[in-house]
């Protein structure tokens, strides 16, 4: 196959900043003159919220509060099947642009609460909140080295639509993190649809596998300094154009880069024995062992852990965000 060795003119977009672009609620005091009454949950708990915030963030409330529906005349909306606790997180996000407090249970991220919040955000058409939940789940999964539990995957597949980009993130978390033992050993049942999608993702080239990197043109100076293409394994010849990642030091030939796809480069522990000490736990921190094991963890942390680039860090906005209603996140150059 003839592949051009010309250096491509257009490199993929750089890293994107995490999170949804903030919105200012303090700019116009007149926006705070009208409130809408919401009656949430079976006990009809009363919330008085500023109409401008609801209308700005959600086409659902735009229709309900400014349209000719009945609800717009008396300004009260009843949502009896939404939990008050979950709705409070929604309100906090509306006013502060944060999901606060971050739901934890027994020191572990309560992903199920965030999934329920996502269901509410979907129903009430808060696109910005959906993106914020996606960001928070990605950050929590990294910070606490955890992923969803089997029952969480059942919520994800039974109650959240298959078009939701959140599904893509969850699948990527399992595909790109070291989750083999967890999948194998967990005593509870993973959702069958989730397992099927995960198999397909691991077998099939995907775009986020390339987009996760911080790519730049790279010309190896000598045979000593070169590497093999991470996709096709061809040795990249000196003084010929290739593409490399600044963060994880992988490289690709121009042909593979041009295809723009690769297989999920999941962490399998190769070249990094210390990984065994950091085996992960569903929805928790690294598994806690006895004293002996803890000692091992302490020692191994001195060694810099090899980590591949992850799509939820390198291409978060392109892969997992929705921006039909909200402004796209700003591109931020990362260390270049
Ligand atoms: Zn990389
Ligand atoms: Zn290649
Ligand atoms: Zn975005």
From TrEMBL:
Family matches, as InterPro entries: BTB/POZ_dom, SKP1/BTB/POZ_sf
Gene3D superfamilies: Potassium Channel Kv1.1, Chain A
Xref: Pfam families: BTB (PF00651)
SMART domains: BTB
Domain BTB: 34-103
UniProt superkingdom: Eukaryota
Stretches the record annotates as Disordered: 272-291
Protein name: BTB domain-containing protein
């Amino acid at each position: 196959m003839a592949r051009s060795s010309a250096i491509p003119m257009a490199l993929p977009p750089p890293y994107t900043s995490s999170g949804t672009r903030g919105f200012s609620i303090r700019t116009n005091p007149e926006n705070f003159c009208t409130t809408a009454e919401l009656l949430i949950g079976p006990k009809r708990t009363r919330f008085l919220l500023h109409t401008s915030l609801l209308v700005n963030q959600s086409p659902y409330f735009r229709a309900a509060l400014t349209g000719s529906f009945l609800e717009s005349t008396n300004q009260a909306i009843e949502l009896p099947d939404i939990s008050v606790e979950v709705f409070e997180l929604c309100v906090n996000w509306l006013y502060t642009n944060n999901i606060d407090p971050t739901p934890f249970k027994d020191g572990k991220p309560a992903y199920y609460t965030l999934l329920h919040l996502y269901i509410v955000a979907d129903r009430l058409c808060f696109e910005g909140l959906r993106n914020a939940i996606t960001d928070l789940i990605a950050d929590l999964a990294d910070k606490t080295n955890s992923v969803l539990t089997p029952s969480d995957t059942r919520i994800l597949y039974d109650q959240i639509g298959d078009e939701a980009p959140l599904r893509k993130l969850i699948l990527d978390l399992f595909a790109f993190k070291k989750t083999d033992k967890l999948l194998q050993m967990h005593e509870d049942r993973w959702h069958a649809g989730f397992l099927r999608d995960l198999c397909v993702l691991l077998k099939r080239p995907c775009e986020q596998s390339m987009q996760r990197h911080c790519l730049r043109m790279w010309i190896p100076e000598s045979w000593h300094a070169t590497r093999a293409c991470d996709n096709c394994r061809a040795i990249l010849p000196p003084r010929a154009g290739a593409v490399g990642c600044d963060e994880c030091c992988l490289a690709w030939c121009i042909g593979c880069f041009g295809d723009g796809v690769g297989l999920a480069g999941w962490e399998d522990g190769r070249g990094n024995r210390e990984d065994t000490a950091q085996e992960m736990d569903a929805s928790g921190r690294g598994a806690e062992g006895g004293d002996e094991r803890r000692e091992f963890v302490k020692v191994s942390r001195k060694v810099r852990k090899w980590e591949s680039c992850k799509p939820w860090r390198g291409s978060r906005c392109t892969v997992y965000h929705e921006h039909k209603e909200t402004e796209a996140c700003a591109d931020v150059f990362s260390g270049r």
